[in-house]
Design brief:
- By secondary structure, the chain is mostly helical.
- The protein folds into two domains: about 90 residues, Winged helix-like DNA-binding domain superfamily/Winged helix DNA-binding domain (Arc Repressor Mutant, subunit A), CATH 1.10.10.10; about 160 residues, Four Helix Bundle (Hemerythrin (Met), subunit A).
- It is about 65% helix and about 5% strand.
- A two-stranded antiparallel sheet has the order 1-2.
- β1 and β2 form a beta hairpin.
- α4 packs across α5 and α10 packs antiparallel against α11.
Length: about 260
């Protein structure tokens, strides 16, 4: 059996890098541009409030303006972008409350996915994919200091690991709900650009423990490990996006059980 690498895994769902013209023209141009733009947003390639220029995106992906314009309209209708007359489309700015709430939901859903995967057991293909993702991460982190390029590579590895577990849970409803939750840009497993090196290393260590619990058919341990994993990502991300005092206050409010404003 040839294991699917982390890079192949993520590309089977949506392109993370700029596609070649032939790739854009495969299937329909509109669907391809939508998924490519969505992937770029979820990977953190644009900043909150940044304007997405139709002409620049057209040149970047070497397509006509029509599918780019339609893709911008679709993602605006989904809430990823804001539209302002005479200014165009900008990436939606998220409150800390929205980020925390998205991660709270994601922690529950991904924990459930890990538990169901452990209960059902992994097939050979899933085992090979997860083992390859872990090996790719080990090799990447062995290089010492993590560069921006390393973060981009680990983003694909990280996404592959999580998506393989989602698929192994055997629940389309769960997969669809996780997907909706991840449409909050910084709550996607593709988003690691804000994390420090020690954060990335800790997340990857978590992956090893989660895989071990699933492969050993320990459903409740797998669920708790995954929920703790997502919760720790939430804390790191909130601290990276906010001044220290504001981050501490938001996390404390959430821990006390209060509802954060969106």
């Amino acid at each position: 059996m040839v294991a699917m690498t982390g890079y192949e895994c993520i590309q089977n769902r949506s392109q993370m890098s700029d596609p070649r013209p032939s790739e854009v023209l495969s299937s329909t141009r509109f669907e391809s541009v939508v998924e490519t733009l969505r992937a770029a947003i979820l990977a953190g390639e644009f900043q909150a409030g940044e304007r997405l220029h139709e002409v620049k995106l057209t040149a970047r992906w070497r397509v006509s303006r029509t599918p780019v314009r339609a893709a911008l309209q679709k993602l605006a209708s989904e809430g990823l972008l804001d539209y302002t007359p005479n200014r165009g489309y900008t990436l939606r700015a998220l409150s800390i409350g929205e980020v925390i709430n998205a991660y709270e939901v994601r922690a529950v859903l991904e924990g459930l996915a890990a538990r169901l995967s452990a209960e059902r057991g992994l097939n050979a293909r899933a085992i090979g994919t997860l083992q390859q993702a872990l090996q790719d991460g080990d090799d990447l982190l062995r290089n010492g200091q993590i560069t921006d390029d390393h973060r981009a590579q680990y983003s694909r590895i990280n996404s592959c690991f999580h998506e393989t577990i989602h698929a192994s849970a055997g629940s389309r409803l769960l997969n669809d709900t996780v997907y909706l939750c991840q449409q909050v840009p910084v709550s996607s497993p593709r988003y690691i650009v804000a994390f420090r090196e020690r954060d990335v290393r800790r997340r990857h260590d978590d992956h090893h423990r989660i895989f071990e619990a699933i492969i050993n058919r320990e459903p409740w341990r797998a669920e708790m490990l995954m929920r703790d994993h997502v919760a720790s990502v939430k804390s790191s991300l909130v601290r990276s996006l906010s001044p220290p005092a504001a981050a501490d206050e938001a996390l404390q409010i959430q821990q006390d059980g209060s509802v954060l404003p969106e």
